[in-house]
Amino acid sequence: MTDNHANHALLRTRTGDHARVGFVELFFDLVFVFAVTQLSHSLIEHPTPQGLIQTAILLGAVWWGWIDTAWATNWLDVDKAPVRLLLFGMMGAGLLMSAALPQALESRGAVFGLAFAALQMSRTGFVLWAVRNDPVLKRNFQRIFVWHGAAAAMWVIGGFAPTEMRLWVWLGALAIDSAAPMLNFRVPGLGRSRTGDWTVEGGHMAERCGLFTIIALGESVLVMGATTAALPWTPMLAIAFAGTFGGALAMWWVYFSSNAEAASEVISGARDPGSIARLAYTYVHVIPIAGIIVTAVGDEWVLAHPSGHTDVKTALAVVGGPALFLLGVLLFKLAVFRRLSPSRLTGLVVLAAIAPFSLMPSPVALCLATTAVLILVGAWETIALSRGAKSA
């Protein structure tokens, strides 16, 4: 790719150094703190198969709104006033979208669809204008604009569709958003994009996705604090709090091992960094995020009812959340380093062994067991890395 970013006022200048995450990007992320909170609370209120599907589709929309912005700011210079104004406008659209999330499939579908479409199209249109003097990036974002336009139309149509049809229309919109990068944004007459043409600053992408992980873990902390504050403080609640808090710490431990930093180095030094970043961050990274959200839902139920019978929904959240998280970080390591992680794979196997018996112990005992598995994985990786091993 022709790397003439220094000649384009709104684009980052590539110096080979790590591109820092700007304060305005952190400010932008505050909207998604609210969005993740809305998603977890929506699942808590609708713990049914349909509620799970609805939450998954809405999480997909939230994720594409965020990850597409992370890619855009990998190119845009966030210290420039026009870029900041763009992000502020997108924050407004994102806040409306997040506020509509709980009733998106009921009375606020139009607000959600219009806000999400505005977020996607304003960003993509701005970037297309910003790269107008770079022929490769210009053609790339022309293709992206077409795909985002098709998806945005579906999100808007779904918002105005009858409630019984909305889920299916939005599933189609999500399919378009999800398929576009995989198909290299192929458009008749415009050709297709090549990941080799994408100048990716690996450190910036790694840091952005790490910060989104912090957002999701922050929701777990908020759930623990708010639920604990509203309940009588008993010894059983203290044990449940220790189990849920320990699980959040363990997930942070597993994710932010030295491999997280090593990933950015691998991407930066790769022959085709765009291909690795697309798989690892665009597609795989949402899986551990989903696991953290499901775990936060399980934390709510464990803290509210730590003793007694473990029902199906609690068992699924308490075991399924950590399992989804470990699956995500396992696939992330495979995507970046091209090898399976024995520690993460072992953790998944142990959780799978626990699953058939998950209705037998109390919720707090089940929570302590799954937290122990996460701690085991974190300790294994730390010990292996301290010994210089690559088998963690």
What does this structure look like?
With 392 residues, the protein is an all-alpha fold. It has two domains: 16-193, no CATH class; 202-386. 75% of the residues lie in helices and 0% in strands. The chain has 14 helices and no strands. The radius of gyration is 21 Å and the shape is globular.
Describe the structure concisely:
This protein is an all-alpha fold and 392 residues long. The chain folds into two domains: 16-193, no CATH class; 202-386.
Features of the shown structure:
single chain, 392 residues, mainly alpha, 2 domains, 14 helices, 0% strand, globular
The largest sheet, given as strand count, sense and whether it forms a barrel, is:
none
SS strand fraction: under 5%
Q: Helical content, roughly?
A: over 70%
Q: In the residues, how many domains can be counted?
A: 2
Count of individual beta strands = 0
Contiguous runs where pLDDT drops below 50 for at least 5 residues: 1-7
Order of helices and strands: HHHHHHHHHHHHHH
Shape: globular
Class derived from helix and strand content: mainly alpha
> pLDDT average, as an integer?
90
The first-to-last residue Cα distance is: 36 Å
Number of helices: 14
Q: What integer value in Å does the Rg equal? A: 21 Å
